Amino acid sequence: MHLTAAYRCSGFARAAPVWAAVRSRSLAVAAAADGSPPGGGSSDAGSGTRVALVQGSSRGLGLEFVRQLVERPNTRVVATCRSPAAAEQLQALRLQHAGRLDIVQLDSTDESSIARAAEQVAALTQHLDLLINATGILHDSSMAPETALARVTMDSLLKCFQVNAAGHILVAKHFAPLLINAAKLNGATDERPAVLANLSARVGSIGDNRLGGWHSYRASKSACNQLTKCAALEFERRKQKVAAIVLHPGTVDTDLSKPFQKNVPPEKLFSRERAVRQLLAIVDRTSMRENGRFFDWKGQEVEW
Ligand SMILES: NC(=O)c1ccc[n+]([C@@H]2O[C@H](COP(=O)([O-])OP(=O)(O)OC[C@H]3O[C@@H](n4cnc5c(N)ncnc54)[C@H](OP(=O)(O)O)[C@@H]3O)[C@@H](O)[C@H]2O)c1
């Protein structure tokens, strides 16, 4: 069912039976079978085309990552989100970049959805050169960041941990084989490894916590940091050319920060365009030396 939904959203709806029959790994071949413009290469494996996946791309920073990555030459983007049909701006981008941008349904709070999405992406590409986990939750209709211990609830703790920590690492778990393949199939090296970038937040730093508050969000970001570090050490121990890093984007004008922007000086409130440009500059210069480290938007290391 989800598979069908994803085909529909990815623009491969009409090619779905062909796809199922041949299990082609090539975006371009599938698109051509569909009669739509080919993506620009028969197969990404070994072609030098870089493939980036952005998890949580319906809006905010995730959407902007997709927008900037898809503009890059020789790059294909897979954008995932939990409700592709509702992601209108993402759908518009797909139409604009036919054959270079695919949308796959993935709900990072549901491991079976992550596993299904990983299977679908593996049918599109044999390697990933970049995976950005951009989902995040700070507040919703039933939850606001806590201002006191007395306000901490099981619901807010679990919700934050699920979206901000568990989701990121389970996505890493299911997509790791494709990141690892980047060395074998697309020339990833210690100097230029595949990159797993998990969006976290400076407030997840325990050493930097001088104000308290936002208990669930902070703790879930600390958990994200620890889980990323574990993955990084494993990549290193196994000599896999995948660098796992944690990024703090700064305060960015998105739905997540909207209710808290009042006291942020204008020069410290970044546009999405600026924030993503800054983060991609860090990603672009990531080598295995940066594996397992936490960087802010300036590229400065943040203490754990
Ligand atoms: N904006 C900032 O100032 C700031 C600062 C520090 C760190 N960050 C971090 O940067 C990342 C991106 O944040 P953003 O500002 O772009 O946030 P945003 O605009 O609020 O977007 C949040 C994204 O997460 C997804 N999401 C939210 N709740 C979810 C849930 N319950 N289950 C699954 N997916 C869910 C959303 O998908 P739907 O559209 O389907 O809801 C959306 O794609 C987050 O990890 C955030 O913590 C942001």
UniProtKB/TrEMBL annotation:
CDD domains: carb_red_sniffer_like_SDR_c
Cited Pfam families: adh_short
Molecular function GO terms recorded: oxidoreductase activity
GO cellular component term of the entry, any: cytoplasm
Family matches, as SUPFAM superfamilies: NAD(P)-binding Rossmann-fold domains
Coiled-coil residue spans: none
Descriptive protein name: Oxidoreductase
